[in-house]
Design brief:
CATH topology: Rossmann fold
Number of domains: 1
Distance between the termini: 44 Å
Shape: globular
Strand order of the largest sheet: 3-2-4-1-5-6
Radius of gyration: 16 Å
Number of strands: 6
Structural class: alpha/beta
CATH class: Alpha Beta
CATH superfamily: Phosphoglycerate mutase-like
Helix content: 25-40%
Order of helices and strands: EHEHEHHEHEE
Number of helices: 5
Length: 183
């Protein structure tokens, strides 16, 4: 049985269609600090710390790594969803993806999902993973068996605790979710 904490990066300083690797905003740094404080209450000493190679994920993990005097290991399997390289195409593309189904996306996305699931399945000790919105949605889809891309709306800096027991995965505690406005 392995405990995993998935942390969505703090708020980025630029939008998805403005920069492919932005740093955290001032609010994002505050969210990273709050996540570190929360994690320090429940994650055992000696836990592995993994991060997406994206700057906003690394910066989100740094406060917790600093508290633990530990190293963040970059793991490319937890990078954000493969997307078009052209910034001008990204906003429309991500809006279509979020409304769709995983099965409708290209093989590169299925490979990316498989890598995430295999990486988590292979973890043998408590691990914190600093990552992205759709990585958390990939985990949620794996657990639910449902095909919709949008499984949940994890807020920036939110922490989601799951337990992997063989082939069985289950949520221990879900982190904060984005709030939607009903018109």
């Amino acid at each position: 049985m392995t405990n995993i904490w998935l942390v969505r990066h703090g708020e980025a300083a630029a939008a998805f269609d403005q920069n492919t690797d932005p740093p955290l905003s001032d609010l994002g740094h505050e969210q990273a600090t709050r996540s570190a404080e929360w994690l320090s209450q429940c994650v055992p000493d000696g836990a592995n710390l993994l991060t997406s190679p994206k700057l906003r994920a690394i910066q989100t993990g740094e406060p917790f790594a600093g508290l633990r005097e530990s190293v963040l290991d970059i793991d490319r399997r937890f990078i954000e969803l493969p997307s078009p390289g052209e910034l001008s195409e990204r906003k429309d593309w991500i809006q279509r993806v979020l409304k769709g189904r995983w099965s409708e996306l290209p093989e590169s996305v299925h490979d990316w999902q498989r890598d995430i699931v295999e990486a988590i399945q292979g973890l043998q000790s408590p691990t914190v993973i600093f990552s992205h919105f759709l990585v958390i949605n990939t985990v949620a889809a794996h657990m639910s068996g449902e095909d919709a891309v949008l499984q949940c709306l994890p807020a920036n800096g939110s922490v989601h605790h799951l337990r992997v027991d063989g082939e069985r995965w289950h949520w221990i505690e879900r982190g904060e979710m984005l709030q939607t406005v009903v018109n």
